[in-house]
């Protein structure tokens, strides 16, 4: 973006626009049905171990590690195809794309997500989110630590961050202060964990669902 805008809207993906909990549930059911409970549980154990190391969910990375323990298992090819070909549009939260369109009337909308460089872009593209933000997609390892890069790519006087994790919202608010408005849709297991939410300052705006954003008058955020 060559010049600064008044306001740029930043959106997380997993459990903000897309019901990632439901995706995981479908994957778990698929793994148990096709490969059995033992292999399912082992995959999730590797997945959680890897998430603890990386700080984000890496489905394909967990599959690669699982492969090291099962080098002669042809079923792994079926597992990867389930992930790559998953019908992500069905897991968009109601009103998710409408919320993006609502914000786009005021300023540019940008995806700001954590994730890997293969599966996360695939998810964003296949769900329709990529087109909804006109290709403005940023994917980092720890996005709350990349705000200088975000501001360089999309300079603005004010930012709005929409995210289901209050930890992320609080970290960004600490860095950007009054320059940032935080919006918290209470969706997904992180947002519904009351003990976790209570650890951090309350976001500026709390919504019961992302679809409720279209009912908000955001003109005051236009600078």
Give a description of the structure.
- 46% of the residues lie in helices and 15% in strands.
- It has 223 residues and is α/β, with parallel strands linked by helices.
- It has a 6-stranded parallel beta sheet, with helices on both faces.
- It is elongated and about 60 Å long.
- The mean pLDDT is 91.
The largest pleated sheet is described as: 6 strands, parallel
Average pLDDT works out at: 91
Q: Helix fraction?
A: 40-55%
Poorly predicted regions: none
Write out key terms for the chains shown.
11 helices; 15% strand; 223 residues; 6 strands; 6-stranded parallel beta sheet; 46% helix; alpha/beta; elongated
Can you lay out the helices and strands and say which pair or pack?
Layout (H helix, E strand, L loop, with lengths): L4 E7 L8 H16 L1 H18 L4 H11 L6 H9 L11 H9 L4 E6 L4 H9 L1 H4 L4 E4 L6 H7 L2 E7 L3 H11 L3 E6 L2 H4 L2 H4 L7 E3 L16
Parallel strand pairs: 1-2, 1-4, 2-3, 4-5, 5-6
Helix pairs in contact: 1-2, 2-3, 3-4
In short, what is this structure?
With 223 residues, the protein is α/β, with parallel strands linked by helices. Helices cover 46% and strands 15% of the residues.
